[in-house]
Design goal:
Length: 177
């Protein structure tokens, strides 16, 4: 899963708290420099509106792009595998309703954005936006900064969303380590 770190709040009164959160999550080690969007000249979008972060899709439109052509038939592949009929069928066959809902929801995700806006910095909880290929938020949660390292390892290890969320498919579910 591709991950992006996006800071949109550059209030001087919150800069120390932001730096503490960044250090606690060991962000520079876990998020590659090409996916670390922290520049007040480019990303100071936080105007108090709920979807202010969406402006990044104009500045960096490729965030939710497809992986490209990835199989012998020349079929476009999504990062999420949402158009892989075999994987979708496996998800739909899951008996447990929560597991099935989470597995199908997971197929929509193209990228995860760690959003550091005013609310996130003030509360000390990073908002994670799980975006689909259109840049729409398919799922949202808040996490403590110290979970970023664990989440990065989970993404690299292909850990399922149901494992991370403790089986809860509700938007805003809290991920615990």
């Amino acid at each position: 899963m591709q991950t992006i770190w996006l800071r949109t709040c550059y209030d001087e009164d919150l800069s120390e708290k932001y730096e503490d959160m960044k250090a606690e999550g060991e962000i520079e080690a876990e998020i590659g420099s090409n996916r670390y969007l922290d520049d007040s000249n480019r990303y100071a979008f936080d105007d108090g509106t709920p979807d202010h972060w969406r402006q990044v899709l104009v500045r960096v439109p490729g965030i939710t792009d497809l992986m490209g052509i990835d199989d012998e038939r020349g079929v476009l592949k999504y990062r999420s595998c949402q158009n892989d009929d075999e994987i979708r069928a496996e998800c739909e066959e899951l008996e447990d309703e929560e597991d099935r809902a989470l597995a199908l929801k997971e197929l929509e995700f193209q990228v995860v954005v760690y959003l550091l806006d005013r609310e996130a910095i003030e509360t000390g909880l990073i908002e994670m936006l799980w975006l689909d290929e259109h840049g729409s938020s398919a799922w949202e949660i808040r996490v403590h900064p110290y979970t970023v390292e664990w989440l990065a390892a989970a993404f690299l290890g292909a850990t399922r969303l149901s494992e991370m969320s403790g089986g809860s498919s509700g938007r805003g579910s809290f991920i615990r380590q």
